[in-house]
Amino acid sequence: HSPYFYKRFHKIHHEFTAPIGIAAVYCHPLEHIIANSLPVAAGTILTGCHAVVLFVWLIIVNVSTTISHSGFHLPFMPSNEMHDYHHAKFNQCFGVLGILDQLHGTHARFVESKEYQRHIVLTSTTPARVLVPDEPKKCE
Prior knowledge:
51% of the residues lie in helices and 0% in strands. The protein is mainly α and 140 residues long.
């Protein structure tokens, strides 16, 4: 999120602070081509893979990005907690896997949050918010 590119292109995508599925592709057209479409297609084009492999890959990528923007933490699927945190805070958790966030320290507040404790692959239908509940609010 460099200030120049964020203001002109990526800010549109972050109009969704509590993501929904359509937010996955809700972005500036130039960003969609450069950041969403080209990276997904590059590997299949460079390897000259079979059309069926391309089709399956596109399904996997689109389902994955839709789930990560859905706001639902589904059982047996990768957690969307980190990406939801990114949409809520904007300056944390930029990466997909979290590796670069660890290297650059852009996940420090996330690691200290309840969302981080919920950032697991669920192996049952028990919701993550039940497994790791929010702290009760203090009465004033």
